[in-house]
Structure formats: C-alpha cells, structure tokens
Design a protein that fits this description.
Layout (H helix, E strand, L loop, with lengths): L6 H11 L11 E7 L4 E10 L2 E10 L2 H14 L4 H15 L6 H4 L15 H23 L1
Antiparallel strand pairs: 1-2, 2-3
Helix pairs in contact: 1-2, 2-5, 3-5
C-alpha cells in the first residue's frame, strides 16, 4: 500500500501511537464494526451527556488505515452533538465515494481529509470507512432509544 506523501506519515503515526485506542470506563453505548475483506475489527465506545458526545474511544485490531481513520474520527466527534457527528460521518463517506468534493465542505473533516485519496485504492476503501459506518450505526441506535 502506498499513500501520497504525508498521508502515510499521519496514518502510521496514529496507528503506532494508539491514539484514542482504549476502553472507556462505563460507556453509554458500544458498537462493533467488522471488515471481512481484511479482518479489521473495532469496538466504538461513546460516553454521552444528553446528545453531546462527551468522550469516545475504540478497541480492536486492524490495518493502519482503519486504525488511523478511527482515531481521526474520534478526535472530530468528541464534544459535539450526535447530529453533528452524523453529518461528519456522511461527509467523510461522501468524500471517499467522490460524491462530495467541495474543499470548503471537506475542511470540516480536518486531519481526516488526508484519507481522501483512499478512494483511488478500492481494496482500502472499506478500511477507511469502517469506523464511520460504525458511528452511523451507533447514532441510529441512540436515536431509537
């Protein structure tokens, strides 16, 4: 796998650091995500204060892209509403599908924007979007309660 210069450094750094990779004490909700294509597994944990995501973390194993994408997502969703988090998930997935290309809009993704070119590597797309789909499932479960 070869990512454009800079993307590989961010992905590998986040992967090796284990940033946001830990278990939360008494999470309000936990959702698992699995990518059967390459074996990525994550468990997303959220701590809520009303509709605000007070804290988030993940556990699991996977490739550098899935782990880095998950960590970047968590950095973005801490402290925002579940609706805002859902919008970011839709934006990220739209970016990967090449449906959203407006740079001003994509800047809302901050560091996660570096994964934009993953869309050119079909075998890695599922790795990049695993956490974001898991977040959407988590939010859908929260809304049903």
């Amino acid at each position: 796998m070869v990512l454009p210069l800079g993307q590989d450094i961010i992905a590998v750094t986040l992967y090796r650091s284990g940033h946001n990779k830990k278990s939360l004490l008494n999470p309000d909700i936990t959702e698992s995500g699995h990518n059967p294509s390459c074996g990525d597994d994550i468990s997303l944990q959220l701590k809520l204060d009303g509709n605000i995501i007070k804290d988030a973390s993940f556990t699991g194993n996977g490739c550098a892209i899935s782990q880095a994408s998950t960590s970047m997502m968590i950095d973005l969703i801490k402290g925002i509403t579940i609706e805002e988090a859902l919008n970011l998930a839709e934006l990220f997935i739209g970016m990967i599908k090449k449906e959203i290309i407006n740079k001003n809009e994509l800047e809302k993704l901050e560091d996660a924007m570096v994964l934009q070119n993953i869309s050119n590597m079909p075998a890695r797309v599922k790795c990049a979007v695993l956490a974001w789909h898991t977040l959407k499932e988590t939010i859908n479960k929260i809304k049903m309660v």
